[in-house]
Design goal:
Structural class: alpha+beta
Largest sheet: 6 strands, antiparallel, barrel
Strand order of the largest sheet: 13-16-15-14-17-18
Distance between the termini: 8 Å
Shape: elongated
Number of strands: 21
CATH topology of the largest domain: FAD/NAD(P)-binding domain
Helix content: 25-40%
Strand content: 25-35%
CATH class of the largest domain: Alpha Beta
Bound molecules: flavin-adenine dinucleotide
Oligomer: single chain
Number of helices: 13
């Protein structure tokens, strides 16, 4: 039996504590917050989408963004089905919604935290809240204990680092784990916000604030190279663009955006129509609305908020009669409908990022145990690692799987 200190009482830390306790260790969990699972409470808009029920093979088919292969052992050791069983056995009944997203039946994220607390109680984990950890103590490459902010030290045989990333820092995830790792000579990939909105350059974008577009295709270009293209739903904001389509795109192109400085964004507002169908439609509608002004005709074709911005971009006089629109005018309308273009200049910050990309390099970690190779007795799990996924319950599943694997691997 080892004495184990878990740093962090989020999804990964609590699951690691449970698994370590179940394996017969004496477990102490430390968190700087006044309560456990502070981030869990705000997940899934307070409903906590705690996993996704698609097959694990599908997880590896585009759902895991950074270092998917590293997660193979963890996900197969403690799968989504096992997370669902764990929740049910610990009093959190669940339901599966659109997109195979799994939620507590009550729609209360607190039920997920309750289940984790019950699990920890069952195996005798001691929880130390309001206890921020200052550093990890080691000697000759072996864990010796931890030092708390209050000055006290806690001696132990193993430490699990589950401090999360840097996103939504008000939940306690302030990136301390990166510092602990760096202090021990462990490589950390610079953290970057992910699942985060984009900032845009053009002045017309904020004018569209509040406009939500469904069934559009968003494509991103670095010079002439298309680096991302997906269909879905997005939203204009006072600083740029957001919404499901955009958040996922940010996770895939964040790194490239950082190196290129900017990307071109093109929205196809009518992706369901071929060029020919779109032209036919324009010709038909123009003849049906011949006496209308160009502006009033566009009001039939576009959401209200977009009309003036769009008309302005086409360089066609808003008062021009529809019947007087030339082939060149039609071409301009078609081009803007197909390629509503603006410039992405950056990502919003960690305060608005659902997850953090980057973190402890997976090269430093044994994927079959979550042990830190350089430091005997040290394990890391959850968002502090350089792993992340798209939305849909995958990030919490990663936290649970890596946490569980770390917990059962402690010697
Ligand atoms: C708004 C929002 C909504 C989300 N919705 C979903 C969703 O529906 N589904 C999904 O799968 N994912 C969702 N996520 C992502 C998911 O919440 C995280 O990926 C996951 O919670 C990470 O778990 P973790 O245990 O690794 O880290 P965290 O949950 O960040 O926990 C880390 C813990 O460590 C503690 N800590 C940090 N430093 C110290 C220190 N020095 N000493 C002591 N304690 C310390 C912190 O207080 C914190 O409690 C969402 C994220 C956000 C921000």
């Amino acid at each position: 039996m080892s004495i184990v200190a878990i740093i962090g009482g989020g999804a990964a830390g609590m699951m690691a504590a449970y698994a370590a306790g179940q394996s017969g260790h004496q477990v102490h969990l430390f968190d700087g917050n006044e309560k456990l699972g502070k981030k869990i409470y705000i997940t899934g808009k307070g409903r906590c989408n705690f996993t996704n029920a698609i097959s694990l093979e599908e997880y590896f088919n585009g759902k895991l963004v950074t270092n998917p292969k590293f997660l193979y052992s963890a996900l197969y050791t403690f799968s989504n089905d096992m997370v669902m069983d764990f929740m049910e056995q610990h009093g959190c009944l669940y339901k599966i919604e659109r997109g195979d997203r799994v939620f507590p039946v009550s729609d209360h994220a607190s039920d997920v935290t309750m289940a984790l607390k019950r699990g920890m109680e069952e195996v005798g984990v001691s929880v130390h809240l309001n206890n921020k950890v200052k550093s990890i103590l080691t000697k000759d490459g072996c864990v010796q204990g931890i030092q708390l902010d209050c000055g006290k030290t806690f001696a132990c045989d193993a430490v699990v680092l589950a401090t999360g990333g840097k996103s939504y820092p008000t939940t306690g995830s302030t990136g301390d784990g990166y510092r602990f790792a760096t202090d021990l000579g462990i490589d950390v990939i610079p953290p970057r916000p992910a699942l985060v909105p984009f900032v845009t350059k053009e002045g017309f974008v904020p004018l569209l604030q509040g406009l939500s577009l469904r069934n559009v295709t968003l494509s991103l270009y670095d010079g002439n190279k298309r680096v991302y293209s997906e269909f879905g739903e997005m939203l204009f904001t006072h600083f740029g663009i957001s919404g499901p389509l955009v958040l996922t795109a940010a996770s895939y192109v964040g790194k490239r955006l950082e190196s290129s400085g900017s990307l071109r964004c093109e929205i196809d507002l009518k992706p369901a129509l071929s060029d020919e169908q779109l032209d036919d439609r324009l010709l038909r509608e123009i003849s049906e609305n011949g006496s209308k002004s160009f502006r009033n005709y566009m009001a039939k074709l576009l959401p209200g908020k977009m009309v003036d911005v769009f008309v302005d971009l086409t360089d066609i006089s808003p008062d021009k009669k529809a019947r007087d629109l030339t082939a060149a005018d039609r071409e301009s309308i078609r081009r803007w409908l197909r390629h509503f273009t603006f410039t992405i200049t950056g990502l919003r910050g960690f305060k608005e990022a659902i997850v953090t990309q980057g973190g402890i390099s997976v090269k430093e970690i044994d994927p079959s145990t979550m042990a830190v190779k350089k430091c005997s007795g040290l394990y890391a799990c959850g968002e502090v690692l350089d792993v992340d996924a798209v939305t849909g319950g995958f990030n919490l599943q990663i936290a649970f799987s890596t946490g569980y694997l770390a917990g059962i691997s402690i010697e």
